[in-house]
Design a protein that fits this description.
This protein is mostly helical. The protein has one domain. The chain has a two-stranded antiparallel sheet. The longest helix is centred in the last third of the chain and has 15 residues. The protein starts with a helix and ends with a helix. The chain contains two helices and two strands. Helix content is about 60%, strand content about 10%.
Length: about 35
């Protein structure tokens, strides 16, 4: 979950729309996947 917040501080990010960064979406998906497994 920390990675999600760290990626939020980056200034060189690729965005999905105008509200979430690709790296944040990926880290959140991996976090949820780890909980499920």
């Amino acid at each position: 979950m920390g990675r999600f917040f760290i990626e939020g501080m980056r200034t060189d990010s690729l965005w999905i729309g105008e509200w979430i960064r690709v790296s944040q979406a990926l880290s959140l998906a991996l976090f949820i996947g780890a909980i499920v497994v």
